[in-house]
Amino acid sequence: MAFAENKTPYFPLDDVEVRRVPTTRTIAEPLYTNNWMSINKSEFFMQAEGAGTFYARDGKTVEFSPAEHASTPTIELYLNGSVFGAILHQRQTLPIHGSGFAKGGKGFVISGASGAGKSSLTTAFFLNGDDFLTDDVTPIVFKNEEPQILPFSDRIKLWEDSLAQFQKKSGSLQKITPYEEKFYYPVSRSHSEKIPLRALFIVEPKEVQKPEFRQLDKTLTIPALQNQIYRYGFLAGMPHLKAAYFHQLVSIGKQIPVIQSDRPLKISISEMHNLMDEYIESELL
Questions:
Q1: Could you read off the pLDDT of 36-73 as tens digits, one per residue?
Q2: Which of 208, 197, 216 shows the shortest CA–CA distance to 148?
Q3: How many contiguous H segments (helices) and E segments (strands) does the chain have?
Q4: Which of 261, 256, 216 is nearest to 116 (CA)?
Q5: Which conformational region is residue 35 in: left (phi greater than 0), alpha (psi within -120 to 50 degrees), or beta?
Q6: What is the C-alpha separation between 132 and 188, in angstroms, rounded?
Q7: For 6, which DSSP code?
Q8: CATH 1.20.120 is the classification of domain 94-283
Q9: For residues 128, 134, 138 and 143, what is the CA-based torsion angle, rounded to 10 degrees?
Q10: Which of 103, 163, 196, 284 has the fewest other C-beta atoms within 10 Å?
Q11: How far apart are CA 65 and CA 38, in angstroms?
């Protein structure tokens, strides 16, 4: 499915202008560059094989030029990933690499490395009656110095084997890329307003027999949270953000529990969800 020229691709933030251009502009004076992107304080350029080129500026504007035969879902994958992360960094809005849901009016984030189960566990909470907030990237904002989740998304990225565990079929879903069995699963947006952040889980798959939940000591929360910043490598071209984010992480660490969660390699999504839900009910609500 080629890119639909008459359709504006989905982007999470309504106040960002997104437009297709014949050729995206490049950055004249990057502070950091590598073989696929360039970045400075206010500009971001990226080239993604099979998708095209992308440019973001001032937290307000996005340009993209699709590659030949690039599909709309593939274009949206990069717009809602690295480009979205760049826009948030340009706005000095802290992006956490995690998915979020709300339970009892409180927000929870499940973070961790790729493959930890952030999206699938968040889907399990949603399918069991809790409110979906974000997938993969969770913006954290502050109101009266209290951390809050900014909800934005209406879809979750799920592998086909995860869909099977939820007894969902992929046939009617948008495939994200031609090369992977991963799909966009649509969900209803339950909230448009910010939700107070109650806790953050860092999930790590391990060779353990059963899940373990350990609240990190306050002295360990800052480096642990720093590792969860989405596209932290972008800060090589935006060094001014490191101090600002450090103060935000300190504030988060003082106000909410950060919980290390060991996930057995062979545990089902439903079993992991049930045990995490029990922990939240008994310890956090």
A1: 999 999 999 999 999 999 999 999 999 999 999 898 98
A2: 197
A3: 7, 17
A4: 261
A5: alpha
A6: 8
A7: T
A8: no
A9: -90
A10: 196
A11: 16
